[in-house]
């Protein structure tokens, strides 16, 4: 088995090196694939343009003659797959990379004209741009030379708004919206912005039939022949031909649901409802929806002034109900003299039930396994857009060392089943708030059962029930509050587990074998989650607190119970001890947009789990502890295989003891992880999707806050190594690096990352920098490690497959 793995590694490395050499050669050979009369554009320069406009001016250079970056592999990849017989192919083009920029004089002239127009729009009314082409050895350089002339400035501002109400409305909002002021450089984008803002204000204040063309500008003195570089602007808001602009109120709203996802058939007549309640007529031809849960999110209220913001809000919330695939809002007037517009909201239902199967194959040098899950979803289970979700998930993990066949030595089995119902409103006793101005509120009732078996060690069963409220303060600020979180744990140690193993692994055995319950609450605050899929610079924050046991502790004291948790006499509820702890956690990220589709992300993920009161002796429950590693953490390690601290399983001299601990999660009561990732696009068109890349560095570990929480209480040296100490912080950090690919199919992102260990805290001194071993003497190092740590095996490289971005 080991020889087979070595063969695979050699083949992978050889293939990667060969591909790199081929791409490197292709990078220098584009000119040999073109005809003798053709040239490849290697450089484009724009001279004498103000620095603040250079990037925008370059965007007017036609894409087909823009050279690729010197560091880009797009053209080499294209050359590798799209050349034949010494020429570029004209058919059967493979979706790899992008073709080189071949010189085209027509595109050069178009680019020159567009750059000149751009400069004129920015106030350089006398601008002239010329182009020159230099060719040598089938390589071309294009130079655009600009003579911008003087910048024209706005000297006078005036307006002509005959409608008094509109003029007053504009004047009252002008200070907040305008980009125009005396002395500024003339800029057509500022005029467009002003027009758009006036249009928005009109549509927000009842002017239903107001159109953008009603707003225009008179520009005086802007002719290139003008002797002065001063410009006078006059804003016009014209009246329609048939009179003045009028404000409109909302009449009634007719909400109509189509009979099925195919929409409204033309050949069948349906009888519309005539019942009006609070200005809304509700007709459901599908007979699948209750009235109140749907009309609750119609913000076009009878008698109110028409406001396009309410129209957009109605669109957003009806789509967020996740039961309609199409929402369309039309308006009509009963007669031409009425100042009311009646809304017709047409809703086409989508498929209610879906089923999704997911799986993954986690593996490393010594284990292989799989997880398989099925999720059934019903988006309208009680005819009110309530989302019901049932998930069943199971998995196995097996040792594969020493020539064993896969799944012949299964040491871990997991099974879980969970159900939840999410209602699109806040269900609070004696209070029924209708929120939704910034996002759809939800109430979620959930229940789950988890079964986990560790061969020859333990069986754990967990039953969890919770109620959670989610609501938006603003579009960027989400609150999530769980006032009730009940957890029941029932663990059993295997009766055949070795007594010495239990003694040496006392803390871990206590965690796995404990029987208790948890009653607590959670709160999470999330900032800027709505920006995660955007290319912009912002800060993301997700901070939460999980706290439990305080209320039960208070009840226990009020009932007169006298207990001594520090001496193994905890208070009990229903015959079981209850957990008491606090667990704050924070995920802080900085997203920096670097232009185009390039982005840098810096992340800090930290948390602490602190047991006190009734749990001062028993500590934090197994499931509430932290782990490091995995596809969303330190990616050079498999999940749950780092730390805590400097923990090194090789110090266990007994092979029997090491085998007993094999596969047990390495956990801690404190975690600090940082990630630095550079993201970029590799290919825009790659088998119908976008192929993106990433390069990353991950740093972090888990620790215990105090002695006695370590994996090996009976071994004082190891217990000491797991405790967090600021003086040892640097030497206890794991460091990994790597690269990855993301296959983005719009709705899903399939991710593959390759992580390489740089620094491993289980070793000491200079031996921690295992990258030196990887570069020289890797085989001897791994053989020595495997001999002293078996059945664990060492891997320098970790592969991670996943769906979605890592963070």
TrEMBL record:
Stored InterPro entries: Bac_surfAg_D15, D15-like
Keyword Ubl conjugation tagged: no
Entry-linked Pfam families: Omp85
Domain Bacterial surface antigen (D15): 548-766
Subcellular location: Membrane
Keyword annotations of the record: Cell outer membrane, Membrane, Signal, Transmembrane
Listed name of the protein: Bacterial surface antigen (D15) domain-containing protein
């Amino acid at each position: 088995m080991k020889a087979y793995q070595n063969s695979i590694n050699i083949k992978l490395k050889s293939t990667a090196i060969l591909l790199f050499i081929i791409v490197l050669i292709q990078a220098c050979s584009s000119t040999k694939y073109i005809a003798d009369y053709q040239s490849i554009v290697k450089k484009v320069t724009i001279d004498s343009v103000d620095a603040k406009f250079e990037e925008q001016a370059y965007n007017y250079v036609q894409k087909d003659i823009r050279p690729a970056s010197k560091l880009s592999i797009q053209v080499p990849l294209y050359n590798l797959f799209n050349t034949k017989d010494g020429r570029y192919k004209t058919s059967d083009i493979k979706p790899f990379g992008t073709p080189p920029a071949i010189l085209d004089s027509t595109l050069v002239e178009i680019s020159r004209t567009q750059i000149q127009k751009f400069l004129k729009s920015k106030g350089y009314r006398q601008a002239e741009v010329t182009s020159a082409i230099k060719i040598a050895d089938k390589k071309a350089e294009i130079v655009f030379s600009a003579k911008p002339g003087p910048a024209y400035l706005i000297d006078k501002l005036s307006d002509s708004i005959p409608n008094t109400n509109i003029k007053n409305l504009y004047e009252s909002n002008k200070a907040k919206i305008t980009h125009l002021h005396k002395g500024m450089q003339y800029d057509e984008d500022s005029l467009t912005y002003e027009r758009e803002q006036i249009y928005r204000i009109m549509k927000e204040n009842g002017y239903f039939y107001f159109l953008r063309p009603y707003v225009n500008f008179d520009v005086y003195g802007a002719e290139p022949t003008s002797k002065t570089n001063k410009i006078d602007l006059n804003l016009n808001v014209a009246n329609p031909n048939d009179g003045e602009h009028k404000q409109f109120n909302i009449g009634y709203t007719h909400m109509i649901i189509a009979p099925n996802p195919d929409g409204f058939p033309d050949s069948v007549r349906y009888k519309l409802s005539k019942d009006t309640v609070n200005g809304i007529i509700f007709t459901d031809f599908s007979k699948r929806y209750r009235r109140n849960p749907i009309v609750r999110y119609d913000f076009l209220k009878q008698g109110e002034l028409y406001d396009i913001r309410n129209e957009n809000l109605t669109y957003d919330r009806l789509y967020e109900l996740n039961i309609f695939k199409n929402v369309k809002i039309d308006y009509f007037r009963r007669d031409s003299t009425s100042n009311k517009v009646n809304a017709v909201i047409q809703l086409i239902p989508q498929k209610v039930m879906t089923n999704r199967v997911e799986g993954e194959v986690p593996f490393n040098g010594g284990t292989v396994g799989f997880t398989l899950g099925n999720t059934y979803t019903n988006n309208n289970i009680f005819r009110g857009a309530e989302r019901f979700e049932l998930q069943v998930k199971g998995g196995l993990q097996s040792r594969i060392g020493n020539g064993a066949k896969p799944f012949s030595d299964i040491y871990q089995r997991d099974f879980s089943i969970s159900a939840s119902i999410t209602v699109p409103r806040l269900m609070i006793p004696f209070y029924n708030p209708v929120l939704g101005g910034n996002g759809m509120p939800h109430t979620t009732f959930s229940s789950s059962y988890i079964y986990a078996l560790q061969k020859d060690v333990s069986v754990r069963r967990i039953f969890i029930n919770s109620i959670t409220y989610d609501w938006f303060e603003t579009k960027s600020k989400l609150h999530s509050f769980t006032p009730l979180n009940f957890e029941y744990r029932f663990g059993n140690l295997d009766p055949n587990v070795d007594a010495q193993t239990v003694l040496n692994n006392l803390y871990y055995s206590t965690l796995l074998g404990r029987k208790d319950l948890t009653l607590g609450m959670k709160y999470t605050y999330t900032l800027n989650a709505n920006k995660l899929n955007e290319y912009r610079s912002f800060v993301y924050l997700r901070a939460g607190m999980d706290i439990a046991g305080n209320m039960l502790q208070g009840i226990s004291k009020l009932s007169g119970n006298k207990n001594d948790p520090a001496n193994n006499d905890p208070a009990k509820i229903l015959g079981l001890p209850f957990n008491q702890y606090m667990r704050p956690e924070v995920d802080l990220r900085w997203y920096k947009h670097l232009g185009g589709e390039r982005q840098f992300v810096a992340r800090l993920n930290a948390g602490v789990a602190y047991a006190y009161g009734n749990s001062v002796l028993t500590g934090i429950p197994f499931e509430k502890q932290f782990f490091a590693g995995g596809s969303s953490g330190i990616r050079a390690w498999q999940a749950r295989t780092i730390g805590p601290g400097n923990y090194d399983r090789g110090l266990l001299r007994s092979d029997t003891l090491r085998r007993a601990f094999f596969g047990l999660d390495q956990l801690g009561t404190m975690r600090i992880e940082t990630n630095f990732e550079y993201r970029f696009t590799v290919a825009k068109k790659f088998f119908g999707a976008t192929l993106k890349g990433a390069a990353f560095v991950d740093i972090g570990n888990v620790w215990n806050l105090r002695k006695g929480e370590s994996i090996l209480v009976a071994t004082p040296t190891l217990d000491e190594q797991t405790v967090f100490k600021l003086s040892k912080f640097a030497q206890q950090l794991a460091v990994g690096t790597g690269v990855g690919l993301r296959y983005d199919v719009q709705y899903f992102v399939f991710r593959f990352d390759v992580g390489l260990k740089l620094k491993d805290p289980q070793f000491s001194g200079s031996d921690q920098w295992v990258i030196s071993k990887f570069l020289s003497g890797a085989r001897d190092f791994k053989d020595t490690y495997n001999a002293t740590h078996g059945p664990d095996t060492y891997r320098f490289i970790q592969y991670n497959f996943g769906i979605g971005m890592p963070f």
